[in-house]
């Protein structure tokens, strides 16, 4: 029950972040399929009453998304740098 209320309370914040970032994430290869598989694994662990597994799957998912977002940010910086160099 605590997990439900915590999740419900964070929903709006998470939804805004997901909507902001999801467009770019899903443009990268098999990212959409991997994220959906990770979400399914988290959901399944919760439904099966395995909180430790759900937590581990959540950490794996967050690390993956963080890595992808960092790669996207680095690519945006490279592109900006290239554009600046072309203008000089």
Detail the topology: elements first, then pairings.
Elements: H1 2-26, H2 31-47, H3 51-87
Helix pairs in contact: 2-3
Overview of the structural elements:
The protein is mostly helical and 88 residues long. It has one domain. Helices cover 90% and strands 0% of the residues. The protein contains three helices and no strands. The protein has helices at 2-26, 31-47, 51-87. Helix 2 (31-47) packs antiparallel against helix 3 (51-87). The mean pLDDT is 83.
Oligomer category: single chain
| Count of beta strands | 0
The domain count comes to 1
Helical run tally = 3
Query: What is the percentage of strand-forming residues?
Result: under 5%
Q: What is the helix content?
A: over 70%
- Envelope shape: elongated
Largest sheet: none
Q: Mean of the pLDDT scores?
A: 83
Q: In sequence order, what are the helices and strands, one letter per element?
A: HHH
Rounded to an integer in angstroms, the radius of gyration calculated over CA atoms is: 17 Å
Q: N- to C-terminal separation?
A: 59 Å
Structural class determined from secondary elements? mainly alpha
List keywords for this structure.
mainly alpha; 88 residues; elongated
Compact description:
This protein has 88 residues and is mostly helical.
